[in-house]
Amino acid sequence: MKDQSYSSHTRFVVGFHLILGSLLVIGTILSLVNIWLQCAAGNGVMTPILITLLFVCGLLLLWFTRLFAVTVQDRAIRAEESLRYFILTGRAIDTRVTIGQLIALRFAHDDEFVALADRAEKEGLSPAEIKKAIKQWRADHHRA
Question: In sequence order, which residues have a C-beta less than 8 Å from that of residue 93 and are 6 or more positions away?
């Protein structure tokens, strides 16, 4: 698998994010234009309205499938990194460490994980600051 770093850790699925997203946005815009043209021509608008509704449903489906997957992934990361902290320290991670900070901390190698987690809590580091502070990157190739 490809090495990850701060600059290469994001996941972008061309077929989902770019192609499907673009097709649904373009289709929604064109279906709205079609409604306007049919109204201007004095034709029936039931079919164009139904087509627009289908495209809007597709956009909502695209949005919520991504939202649900990320929400479940965030819960799994919270559990995994809390357990990892407990295994490494013998105590629970501070409740002030946010989910965003935990998500960023998952990329830190065990050697620097605890120190970074403690810094994140004490200094209120942002997820980007945490990721930039990581010296030995721990790749995550199994995310949604």
Answer: 81, 82, 85, 86, 102, 117
Contact indicator for 112, 135 with CB cutoff of 8 Å:
yes
Report how far residue 134's alpha carbon sits from residue 116's, in angstroms, rounded to the nearest whole number: 8
Average pLDDT across each block of 10 residues of the chain; the chain has 144 residues. List them in order.
62 85 97 96 93 97 94 93 96 93 94 95 94 88 70
DSSP state of 20: I
DSSP labels for 105-123?
Answer: HTTB-HHHHHHHHHHHHHH
Which one-letter DSSP state was computed for residue 137? B
The residues near 94 (Cβ < 8 Å, ≥ 6 apart) are 117, 118, 121
